[in-house]
Amino acid sequence: MKHFQLRSRIQDQVAVIYPKGHLDAHHVERFEQEIRRIMENRVMRIVINCENLDYISSAGMGVIMGYLDEIREKMGDIKLCCVNNQVYDIFDLVGFTDIYDFLKDENTAIRAFA
Amino acid sequence: MKHFQLRSRIQDQVAVIYPKGHLDAHHVERFEQEIRRIMENRVMRIVINCENLDYISSAGMGVIMGYLDEIREKMGDIKLCCVNNQVYDIFDLVGFTDIYDFLKDENTAIRAFA
Amino acid sequence: MFKVEADLTVTIPSSTELLKMVVELTRHAVEILEFPDKEVQQIALAVDEAITNVIKHSYRYEKGRDIRIEFFIAATGLKIRIIYAGIAPEMDPEAVSVERLIKQKRKGGLGVQLMRKIMDSVEYSSSNGLNICEMIKWKKRETVG
Amino acid sequence: MFKVEADLTVTIPSSTELLKMVVELTRHAVEILEFPDKEVQQIALAVDEAITNVIKHSYRYEKGRDIRIEFFIAATGLKIRIIYAGIAPEMDPEAVSVERLIKQKRKGGLGVQLMRKIMDSVEYSSSNGLNICEMIKWKKRETVG
Ligand SMILES: Nc1ncnc2c1ncn2[C@@H]1O[C@H](COP(=O)(O)OP(=O)(O)O)[C@@H](O)[C@H]1O
Ligand SMILES: Nc1ncnc2c1ncn2[C@@H]1O[C@H](COP(=O)(O)OP(=O)(O)O)[C@@H](O)[C@H]1O
């Protein structure tokens, strides 16, 4: 049984990442690699679709934080969508909800870049 | 969060019990009460619909076993239906599959009494 | 084969309320060994059965008594040791068939049988007022690596 | 308030692989206390954060070192004590805002903040080479009973 899985795709010059399951310090490397791979391909518009993300600890949040400055300097952004209530509460606790855009659905998140 | 839930209903003089979740020694009393309540109402045709039963230990199987002799003496029976693969394997390990009828769906199980 | 010290140890009070927790903990511990899913579920059930018996027979449902569960994880298999006090288990109760149990209107008698069917070895021992149930499950050739 | 001996004890080796197991075990242990669902999830996260820090900072990702987690369960609340060796934690690292962490391109710095936000008290102490992280969560009035 895989506790964490990840896939991503590109649409309209926006990379959409789909983390799935339980994202903790054990699985964070895989998540970080994906963000870096996307940035190395010079895509700076990233949507993290959290529809199937059940759990995130500060290890995962650290990755979302660590590249934001560089991404925004390069006129890009990280937006989150489809976050369930429990995970949203955690993002809210650390103050992410003041810094990142949280959108209801993926299309709105992608279009928010246009 | 309730780990085990139970409801039942009567159709065509057959009692259908719906155990749901995780049935272990902690929750077995509730299950046994229900079987006894049904028998006290002189209903001896019982279908256990295991569609939502995720787990059963020998405590739960003991209840299915303990009343069978009396029920069969009174021309009734216990039949099981909609058992998932994991739970079926456990029933099979202890030899239940030689003794009880296991049916694919609830209607077939109810009609098997007619 | 197995190390002398357990890789993972859990001490719980004798309460059936905690059975599900132990089952899920066992699943996780066993998953790490990459047993097939089906065996993971069944090993967790064997642990449930062993602990249920400790609570029921050794502690007679008395709450707050200690049960210590030790997991020994090796490449070739898994050893689970359960250490508890209370009434020592009868040695090797004879397996009674389901047919007989039903005729006798028994509501029990399947637990140890299940443990023995699931695990490759199940051994009970007692000394100095401490009882030990030790179960081993080897990894099948085709599932190693 | 809390008993002297833990109600539930788990000893795990320092491996991030086991974090999820600890999170689920904590959820179960906390559920028994009938905390609201949301708090159950968050308390489990606080334990994840504490253990992640032990593995990362105290054991520098070295595997096989012991981490002992003790749960003290009372009607009024829950105490969780984590006992470990290795490098002693710095006392009370100052909380840095997310804005600052982002400007500094930091990929960490949120764990202890989260623990403090979730729990009612978080205390670190060290003596004789053993380190202890002790966290308490009280049950709110309206949720007692
Ligand atoms: N931990 C134990 N301590 C004492 N006796 C035990 C223990 N485990 C099993 N036994 C004995 O073995 C018998 C068979 O156990 P089991 O197959 O689980 O059936 P059940 O518990 O339903 O009677 C029990 O009835 C009991 O006499
Ligand atoms: N168990 C620990 N042992 C040693 N140092 C610790 C421990 N926990 C926390 N710290 C210190 O506190 C700092 C803040 O921890 P945290 O908020 O989790 O951020 P991060 O671990 O991401 O750096 C860490 O960088 C570390 O210096």
Quickly count the domains of chain C: 1
The CATH architecture classification of chain C is 2-Layer Sandwich
Work out the helicity level of chain A.
25-40%
Oligomer: heterotetramer
| Rg of chain C, Å, rounded | 15 Å
Which protein chains are joined by the largest interface, and how many residues does each one contribute? A-D, 28 and 31 residues
Report the portion of residues of chain C in β strands.
25-35%
Number of strands of chain A: 6
CATH class of chain A: Alpha Beta
Short description:
Chain A has 114 residues and is α/β, with parallel strands linked by helices. In chain A, 39% of the residues lie in helices and 31% in strands. In chain A, helix 1 packs parallel to helix 2.
What does this molecule look like?
The complex is a heterotetramer, with two copies of chain A (114 residues) and two copies of chain C (145 residues). With 114 residues, chain A is of the alpha/beta class. Helices cover 39% and strands 31% of the residues of chain A. Chain A has helices spanning 28-40, 58-66, 68-73, 85-94, 106-111, and strands at residues 4-11, 14-23, 45-49, 53-56, 77-81, 101-103. In chain A, strands 1, 2, 3, 4, 5 and 6 form a six-stranded mixed β-sheet that branches. In chain A, a hairpin with a 2-residue loop joins strand 1 (4-11) and strand 2. Chain A is globular and about 35 Å long. Chain C is an alpha+beta fold and 145 residues long. Chain C has one domain (8-140): Heat Shock Protein 90, CATH 3.30.565. In chain C, 34% of the residues lie in helices and 27% in strands. Chain C has four helices and five strands, in the order βααββααββ. Chain C has helices at residues 19-31, 37-58, 98-103, 111-118; strands at 8-13, 66-74, 77-84, 121-127, 130-138. Chain C has a five-stranded antiparallel β-sheet. The longest helix of chain C is centred in the N-terminal third of the chain and has 22 residues, at 37-58. The mean pLDDT of chain C is 93. The chains are: A alpha/beta (114), C alpha+beta (145). Chains in contact: A-D, B-C, C-D. Strand 1 (8-13) of chain C pairs antiparallel with strand 1 of chain D, so a sheet runs across the interface. Bound molecules: adenosine-5'-diphosphate (2 copies).
